[in-house]
Amino acid sequence: MTAAAARPASVPPLPSGGPVEIVPGVHWIGAFDPGLRSFDTLMKTANGTSYNAYAVRGSAGVAVIDTVHADHAEAFFARLEAVARYDEITQIVLNHLEPDHSGALPELLRRAPQAEIRLSPRGLPILRALLRDAFEAARILPVTTGAEADLGGRRLRFLTTPNVHWPDTQCSYLVEEGILFTCDLLGSHYCDERLFDDRVGDFRFAMDHYFDRLMRPFRSFVTQALDLIEPLELSVIAPSHGPVLRTDPRGYLGRYRRLAGPRSAPGPDRTLAILYISAHGATARLAQAIRDGAAGEPGVRVSLFDLEGGELHPFLDLIEEVDGIALGTPTINGDAVRAIWELLAMLVDIETRGKLGAAFGSYGWSGEAVRQVEARLQGLKMRLPEPGLKVKLNPAEEDLEEARAFGRRLAAHLTGRAPPREVDLADLASR
Ligand SMILES: Cc1cc2nc3c(=O)[nH]c(=O)nc-3n(C[C@H](O)[C@H](O)[C@H](O)COP(=O)(O)O)c2cc1C
Asked: Where is the Flavodoxin-like domain (predicted)?
């Protein structure tokens, strides 16, 4: 959804205002969007957002760090012009190329064609697709962790911090001032023209909500980024959305550490959650037998849940924490049942890559559901070491024994006692 489409007409725009000095020679030149109510189709934004861009002046030139959404280009250029001439701009730093930060870039390049673009190597193909014909003419220098841009008496040092939340993401660190420009990392959709964290309203909820909706699927990458950031001397964290963080910047890193870390201390055992739904009890009996088999293996803690008996959201927290899941569903009208699909759709909000996944279920005649669930688990980059278990109608004793053996094998895959084996989609299609 575009920003314009998401903005109710009743919300008046804030007065445009000028650039905001962060320290002498470093200015916020972004734009406020108080009326935005939906971002990236992923989250609601109850009091809008800001698109934060910055200008850093050195004795040899000016660096512009990120731009703004195209709908707000006018405010951005007005603020930029208040602190620099276009012919003074030597660097354009692109910490992240999503359109809310790169929307004004094509016009900025027209006005400052001499400027050299600094971005991560993984930003290159994205920039090419954004600029199209203008890409070849642009002066582009990919940078990785440790590279520096000399602005004259001031250096910008780059940190490659991929996948928070796009592949191209990086941070830029103004060495002499200890200011870290983090783009979306540590951002908040929280529009308040007072800008600094010690002046705006209470935005802690907005920062946590932002993490939950945008960063949570990339928790391990956030942790890697924090590992790079934490050794730095920090006076200010300047993200691309929401307040500029100048009060105890390290406290915000600690907050992110907690958000990105496990919700509970991991125990000594590997963990398997079996979640199922069952109309007539057949899939439920399979689930119970899989649990009995898996629970008999040492070093694995197994839990069993009937999706009929729970709200789905807590299961998301559970699945994020466990090492593996087995999902059970009957085939109803040629499909897995709705609660399973809803849960599977929600899994996009958490990090699932590399977790063990498995599917099972009872069926009457065509039995499509298990294969469909397996395909979705593979789409979520989970590893599927065992082909799914399908049983026709009520499981006989030998079916239940097969389910127990299935559970034992899943447990062995979790503890590393079984040799790794991936299910391939061609094989799934033939079943
Ligand atoms: C409304 C309805 C539709 C069904 N559609 C299918 C189907 O399309 N293909 C199939 O293999 N079985 C179908 N079945 C059969 C169920 O998959 C089968 O009864 C299964 O054992 C139910 O498992 P449960 O006891 O765990 O609910 C259908 C059953 C019902 C009640």
From this structure: 272-411
